[in-house]
Task: inverse folding
């Protein structure tokens, strides 16, 4: 009881400092990585390093999400060194279980986030990094049972308000928003009720959608990660539905080996890396949850690529590409359907080549279904407000950016015969 009271007292003092503005002399940044970050992705590592304020020159790594906490924290520290960071890097003893494959005993790290002395050591830290793994391990260790902040989380918020950069990959990306996706795949999310309990990491690959509380570093929307490889468009759409508050219904789907650098003061978001940011604006969408079948109309979907930016406070998008409207490079009627035999499986390629850079196309229909008959129709429509931008990426690689395509989702019935 006494320890719990001390934790709450420490957190209350931190909250008072933040509320008074005494420590919030500049806004911080978030570097949100969609998972599978390559060690040679210089743009992302340099963005993290260059965002560390000179007056807070140290880095702290939070390995709580990982089943191999010391190992993956040490791997990130080595990557920072490889990309030129020579400051102090501390691995914080916060984890759920011990990794017997290492010489480090992590069995005593479960309550590390409650250590006030550890929290006080963050005073000189300007870069905080969350490794990947299971996002529920992060929230289980950094949040109190009543939903309040542990001393360590309260200290991280102070440093973020002071101008620090808080970054994370995979699970470390999922926790960035106030509401967090804990589990589920797209088809199950759109065709089955939401889950009420967490069944472990396997549920992140296949199963019903489960929502939990995140850490709320990003003040708006929901973050999803591994977005391209794990086809998570559907589950992010479903996560934005009621009871999510209308003003919060924005989704940020980040591809693997790709980062979103967000400035909390200005609201600017910049895309870095080989993949894309899929931005969903469902604040004016019409959701239908009746009769146990989910559908939605009028979601605005944008796809931003490396070098593009978006401001969540003003709603403006910027891309350096050439506009495709009236200058379409293609003129063919795309196949409507589903499956790996159809071209342009990536969302940026599909909406670029087959829709906004195609004078013969104003609508695309793609289906998702399994052999049991659960099926969904995704309809993408080009409207007068839609924008397409094309440019060469690396070498002669076509790179598309898409603005304000209209997305609707409908349940359908499909029979599969062998």
Result:
């Amino acid at each position: 009881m006494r320890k719990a009271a001390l934790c709450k007292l420490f957190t209350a003092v931190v909250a008072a400092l933040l509320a008074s503005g005494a420590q919030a002399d500049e806004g911080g940044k978030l570097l949100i990585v969609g998972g599978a970050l390559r060690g040679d992705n210089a743009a992302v590592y340099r963005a993290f390093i260059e965002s560390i304020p000179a007056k807070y020159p140290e880095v702290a790594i939070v390995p709580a999400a990982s089943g191999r906490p010391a190992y993956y924290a040490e791997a990130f520290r080595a990557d920072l060194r490889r990309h030129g960071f020579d400051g102090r890097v501390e691995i914080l003893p916060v984890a759920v279980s011990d990794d017997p494959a290492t010489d480090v005993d992590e069995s005593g790290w479960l309550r590390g986030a409650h250590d006030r002395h550890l929290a006080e050591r963050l005073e000189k830290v300007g870069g905080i990094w969350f490794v990947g793994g299971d996002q529920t391990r992060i929230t289980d260790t950094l949040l109190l049972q009543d939903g309040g902040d542990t001393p360590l989380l309260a200290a991280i918020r102070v440093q973020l308000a002071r101008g620090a950069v808080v970054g994370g990959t995979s699970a470390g990306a999922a926790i960035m928003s106030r509401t967090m996706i804990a589990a589920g795949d797209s088809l199950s999310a759109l065709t089955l009720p939401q889950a009420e309990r967490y069944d472990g990491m396997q549920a992140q690959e296949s199963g019903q959608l489960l929502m939990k509380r995140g850490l709320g570093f990003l003040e708006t929307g929901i973050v999803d990660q591994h977005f391209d490889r794990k086809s998570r468009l559907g589950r992010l759409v479903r996560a934005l539905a009621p009871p999510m508050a209308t003003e919060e219904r924005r989704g940020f789907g980040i591809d693997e080996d790709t980062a979103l650098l967000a400035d909390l003061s200005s609201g600017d978001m910049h895309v870095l890396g080989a993949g894309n940011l899929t931005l969903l604006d469902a604040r004016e969408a019409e959701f239908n949850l009746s009769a146990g079948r989910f559908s939605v109309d009028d979601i605005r979907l944008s796809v931003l690529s490396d070098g593009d930016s978006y401001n969540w406070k003003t709603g403006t998008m910027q891309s350096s590409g050439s506009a495709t409207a009236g200058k379409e490079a293609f003129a063919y009627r795309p196949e409507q359907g589903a499956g790996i035999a159809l071209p342009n499986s990536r969302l940026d390629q599909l909406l670029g080549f087959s829709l906004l850079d195609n004078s013969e196309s104003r609508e695309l229909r793609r289906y998702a279904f399994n052999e049991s008959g659960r099926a969904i129709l995704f309809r993408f429509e080009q409207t007068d407000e839609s924008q397409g931008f094309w440019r060469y990426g690396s070498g002669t690689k076509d790179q598309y950016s898409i603005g304000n395509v209209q997305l609707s989702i409908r349940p359908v019935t499909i029979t599969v015969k062998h």
Q: What stands out?
A: DSSP finds ten helices and 21 strands in the chain. The longest helix spans residues 2-20.
